[in-house]
Amino acid sequence: MYLITVFGNLIIIQAVSSDSHLHTPMYFFLSNLSFTDICFTSTTIPKMLWNIQNKSKLITFDGCITQIYFYILFAGLDDILLSVMAYDRFVAICHPLHYSVIMNPRLCGLLVLISWTLSAMYSLLHSLMVLGLSFCPDLEIPHFFCELNQVVQLASSDTFVNNVVMYFSSVLLAGGPFAGILYSYSKIVSCIRRISSAQGKFKAFSTCMSHLSVVSLFYCTSLGVYLSSSATHSSHSSVIASVMYTVVMPMLNPFIYSLRNKDIKRALKRFYLMPYSKAQLSWG
Fold first, then answer.
1. Quick one: pLDDT band at residue 277, thresholds 50, 70, 90?
2. C-alpha radius of gyration, the chain, whole number
């Protein structure tokens, strides 16, 4: 599953970078999302596989803090990029004549830079606050990676400030992009309703289907992780929900975009079949 996740997202990046027809804002954000998914799943799964192979469950304190930092960084980046992609669809459908002017390369680069900056600051805040806590020398984390909430609960010092910051910042980082997605799609729906022909409505809405599928998958799995950790004290159910969030979701994203997207499939055919066709022509 890890290899499928990595190679699937690499294929998306390769298709976007190799085909000039895909050098548009939507596919620029998609390639950034694919890169983020590769990094996101790589923060936890290789270490878990290494531990299984070596029959060891040890991780150093520095390694644990590093894992927390990068896990939060790429999870937050995933969330913000989905909101940016929703805004891109809003401009494409509601302001099609001004799309190229509004979504210019400078704005697209700025949106990605802001996404990275916000996620980096958010993850750095939590990592530094965990560094300020006191821990016993030997601890057992009931998870397959250093999950922030599980690590904070194991601290021997007072964690009230950590919990307050953790919950408020989570609401801001998760709620802000989600509110942006809801706002964008409310405007998209109102614009689509004003289209007279049924074929035009379907064509406009079909451009959002892949993104909507990924958003639904992202927030459903995120909600599953939250509910499993808060509604039950069983670490087993929390681990299963986290596997869905860290492995299954990044693995399915390339399939959702490639299977439902004619431009991606066309780009992949050009990339893989054109060299073969040229070789046959030169041989003949």
1. very low
2. 21
